[in-house]
Amino acid sequence: MNNELDYSIENGYVPGAIGRISELHGVYYHANWGFGLFFEAKVATEISAFLSRYDAARDGIWLAVVDGRVEGSIVIDGIHASSEGAHLRWFILSDPLRGRGVGRQLINRAVDFCRRRRYPKAYLWTFEGLDAAKHLYEDVGFRVVRQHRGVQWGTEVNEQYCELTCRRV
């Protein structure tokens, strides 16, 4: 593979996004963390529900696309942004895009979106051991607020809840 990979960052839904985001999550988390059917089905169900109620005024979805194929994603679910915060979800990249700055571009777009919307805070759930993602989260200002052992993804991990203050309230 050459060092240059032509990709674009698309804002909004593109055909195939639900299946591809689910596939990227299912394959990566199975190979690296042993997650199974429960997790992939959860991603597919929840991203489908999100996109079915998507409202560009409050929600954001950015997709890294190579040759018309989704190779990465990040979402801001703003349905409860004023009461609970904007929920950063489904941040994933395919192997060919990792380490190329694409993840940083995606997370910056998501955080900028929250700040432009003047959301008080953004939050995400992750788990201990996702060091590359954690580094990007910390670089934009997310901090671990609490953690505990849990099984929300179908496998027991040390779950971490992180928050970012987007504006002073």
What does this structure look like?
With 169 residues, this protein is an alpha+beta fold. It has one domain: Aminopeptidase (3-Layer(aba) Sandwich). It has a 7-stranded mixed beta sheet with strand order 1-2-3-4-5-7-6, with helices on both faces. Helix 1 runs antiparallel to helix 2. It holds the Pfam family Acetyltransf_1. One of its GO terms (molecular function) is N-acetyltransferase activity.
CATH topology: Aminopeptidase
Task: Assign the CATH superfamily.
Answer: Gcn5-related N-acetyltransferase (GNAT)
Q: How many H/I helices? A: 4
Rg over CA atoms, rounded to whole Å, is 15 Å
Q: What is the terminal-to-terminal distance?
A: 48 Å
Shape: globular
Q: What's the β-strand tally? A: 7
What share of residues is helical? Answer: 25-40%
Structural class by helix and strand composition: alpha+beta
CATH architecture: 3-Layer(aba) Sandwich
* Spatial arrangement of strands, main beta sheet: 1-2-3-4-5-7-6
The poorly predicted ranges are none
Question: Helix and strand string, N-terminal first?
Answer: EHHEEEHEHEE
Count of separate structural domains: 1
- Average pLDDT number: 91
Report strand %. 25-35%
CATH class: Alpha Beta
What does the main sheet amount to? 7 strands, mixed
Question: Descriptors for this entry?
Answer:
single chain; 169 residues; alpha+beta; Aminopeptidase; 7-stranded mixed beta sheet; 7 strands
Question: Summarize this, please?
Answer:
34% of the residues lie in helices and 31% in strands. It contains four helices and seven strands; from the N terminus they run βααβββαβαββ.
